[in-house]
Amino acid sequence: MGSNSLRGWIEAILIGVVSYLLLYVPIAVGDSFLTFSVLPILFIGLRRGLLQGFFAGIVAGILALLLMSNSNDLLVNIVSQFGPLAFIGIVGFFAKFTQRTLNNKRYPNAAVNIITASILGTLVFYLWKFVASLSFNAEQVAEGSSAISHYLKIDGLSFAVTLAANAIVLLLLAKFLPKFFIPKDTPFLSRKEKSKLLND
Question: Per the confidence metrics, is the pTM higher than 0.85?
């Protein structure tokens, strides 16, 4: 499930704050946006597991809910601000497999786990965004146009751009700095594997 060390929880809090702050720096790429706030939660999920992954996302989501909400309707704010970030931590499911394959220097296998986790986490974020856009902003679409097609195009392109950036950064980290994914107190390696890790 994840590490129960104090350090792990502190990391999750810090990652949650960083993820929230990155919401303020989206990068426009044509009609889409590259959103960096997904990346830190993907990383902590793969490094610490489900518990800290979800916790980091919830911290980021609560901050967004409290500080970025622009509606008096609590449901609107939960769906558009809290939801997209709070559930990215599901990628923590892949922490065990990613760390074991990296520890055994099986990069191709680790890469599959990282790419799969990146797809899942980024998809969760943009599914919430798409639902929020469709539910609360449909009236902003030009008359005669389909709200579903409009937001599917915008959020779909943003998903593809953000996914590519997330996957590339995480794959580069795994290739050149694999120990970043494996904390010394990881619960996903055996005692023997940890001993070998500390001696490398």
Answer: yes
